[in-house]
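Researcher: Please generate the 3D structure of the following complex. Treat every line as part of one assembly.
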Amino acid sequence: MPNARVLRDIKARNVVKASEVLRRAYLYVARNETLSPQVRHQAQLQLNTFGKYTRPTTVKNRCAESGRGRGIISEFALCRYQFRLKALKLELPGVRKASW
Amino acid sequence: MAAAAAAIRPMRLAALTRSRCSIFQTAYNPTSARTGAKYLRARLRGPSMVKYYTPEANIAQIMRQWPELEMRNFAEEERLQDVEDKKKRGKGAPKKAKEKGDSRRASRRR
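Model: Done. Output below.
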């Protein structure tokens, strides 16, 4: 069972994907200076009604094992300690100790 | 050839830009007004965001999708057995409180 924060992040990602096109459309209208200010304001108000999980800023890369939010290596979706543990057990393909 | 070809009239330059844009089908924006086109032009990030976490293998899901495989969920069976054992010992889950005063928390206050 993954971490609670990871579950929340998964939910955010799904919601962002579902609402992305709509959000972009409203954003286009709200930021278009060639349109009248009333229309732009309306679009901005509509954008404000969107929930927090529709915003891509709520999405954060987390460690899939521990749920840690910092020190994440995105390629493996692991935090640095989990990455180290798995790499030493040779569970990560193509990863080996560096020496040069 | 003449050195007096110093300044080409701005109208001609604007006409040139306009025709160039119509030929190459680009947007004509001489004043650089902000049209919000950048929000439409940018690529969608949703699909790549969703792919970050690998989906975990779920025995219950596999059992639902392919019932012909006749798989058994041992962890779930063990959990149900534990619940039955607890009930036999009298340690099962307590009854759900119907009214507000019935719950254990409310009776503890007194």
